[in-house]
Design goal:
The chain is mainly α and 293 residues long. It has 11 helices and no strands. The protein starts with a helix and ends with a helix.
C-alpha cells in the first residue's frame, strides 16, 4: 500500500489517467459485454444511459480519489476554491460561453448555403425548446461538471507545473479524444450495423483527434490567463458540448460529416495560431500561474 501511494504521489497525472480509463472503459465494457457486437439500435438505446454513466464516472471519481491521496484536505479545499472562483474578467466568460456556439453555428450556416444537409439541428427540429434545454443541461452536467472536475480539476494544474500551455493542451487534448473512442466506436457500430465501413468512423476520428486537441489548447490558455478558474473551464467545455448537440445535424451522411469536421478542426487550429501570435508566443512558454508562483 505504501509503495502504491508513493508511486501515485510521484506520478499523479499518470496515475490519474490510468484510473480514469480503468473506471470509464472498464465500466463500459462491463455494461456492453452481454450484448452482441455490432449492437443493434435497440441495444444502444437501452444501454446508452449506463454507458454514459460509466464514461463520466471516470474523470470525476478519479479526480476526487487522487486529490485525496496526493494532496489530502488541502487538495479538496483548492479544488473547491477553483470551482467557486467566479470573480474573473467578464471577457473570459464571453469567450467561454460564446466562442463554441458562434463557431459551430456559423460554420454550419455557411455550409448550408451549399447544401441543406448542413442546416443546424435547432432549425430543423420540431422540439426546439426541448432540444435547447436538454443540450444546455447535457453540457453543464456531463461535459462541464463531471469531465472538468478531472481534466482541469486535477490533470491540467499539475501538467502546467512542468509544461507550457501548448504542450499541456496537446497532452490533455489527445487523451481527451482517446477517452471518447470506445463509446464512439460502440455507438457508431450500432447505428450503422448494416455497413461497418471504416469511412463511417472518420467524422468522429477527425473530431476527437483534430478539433478536441485544438479546443483543449484554447481551454488551457483561458484557464491560465484568468487565474485558474475551474468554473470558467467548466462553462467553456459545457458550451462546446451543448453546441454540438444543439446545432450539429442528427443524420449527417459521411461526406458532409467529414467535410464539416475537417473545416471545424482547421478553424480551431487557425484560432490557436492567431492566439499564439497575438500573445507573443505565450502558448509555448511556461504558464503565468507557474511563473507567478
Amino acid at each position: 500500500m505504501k509503495t502504491t501511494r508513493a508511486f501515485i504521489t510521484r506520478h499523479p497525472v499518470l496515475s490519474y489517467y490510468a484510473l480514469t480509463f480503468v473506471i470509464s472503459w472498464g465500466g463500459i465494457l462491463i455494461v456492453i459485454a452481454p450484448s452482441p457486437f455490432p449492437p443493434t439500435n435497440e441495444h444502444v438505446t437501452r444501454l446508452l444511459p449506463l454507458v454514459l454513466g460509466a464514461l463520466f464516472a471516470g474523470p470525476s471519481i478519479a479526480s476526487l480519489v487522487l486529490t485525496g491521496l496526493v494532496a489530502g484536505r488541502a487538495g479538496y479545499r483548492d479544488l473547491f476554491a477553483r470551482m467557486m472562483r467566479w470573480r474573473v474578467d467578464v471577457r473570459w466568460y464571453t469567450v467561454a460561453l460564446c466562442f463554441a456556439p458562434f463557431l459551430v453555428s456559423g460554420l454550419l450556416l455557411a455550409l448550408s448555403l451549399a447544401s441543406p444537409a448542413f442546416l443546424p439541428r435547432i432549425l430543423t427540429t420540431n422540439g426546439k425548446t426541448a432540444l435547447l434545454l436538454f443540450g444546455i443541461g447535457w453540457g453543464l452536467v456531463g461535459g462541464g461538471l463531471l469531465e472538468e472536475l478531472g481534466w482541469t480539476g486535477f490533470a491540467i494544474p499539475r501538467l502546467l507545473e512542468r509544461h507550457s500551455v501548448l504542450a499541456t493542451g496537446l497532452i490533455v487534448g489527445f487523451l481527451w479524444g482517446v477517452w471518447h473512442y470506445l463509446i464512439a466506436f460502440w455507438v457508431i457500430s450500432g447505428t450503422n450495423a448494416g455497413s461497418l465501413s471504416p469511412a463511417i468512423f472518420l467524422p468522429a476520428l477527425i473530431f476527437y483527434a483534430g478539433s478536441l486537441s485544438a479546443y483543449r489548447v484554447l481551454m488551457v490558455w483561458v484557464y491560465d490567463r484568468n487565474g485558474g478558474s475551474l468554473l470558467v473551464a467548466m462553462l467553456m467545455h459545457a458550451s462546446l458540448s451543448a453546441s454540438s448537440l444543439i446545432f450539429e445535424p442528427l443524420d449527417f451522411a459521411v461526406v458532409p460529416a467529414v467535410t464539416y469536421n475537417l473545416l471545424l478542426a482547421a478553424a480551431l487550429w487557425a484560432v490557436v495560431g492567431a492566439v499564439a501570435v497575438a500573445n507573443h508566443g505565450h502558448l509555448s512558454r511556461p504558464s503565468l500561474r507557474t511563473r507567478a508562483a
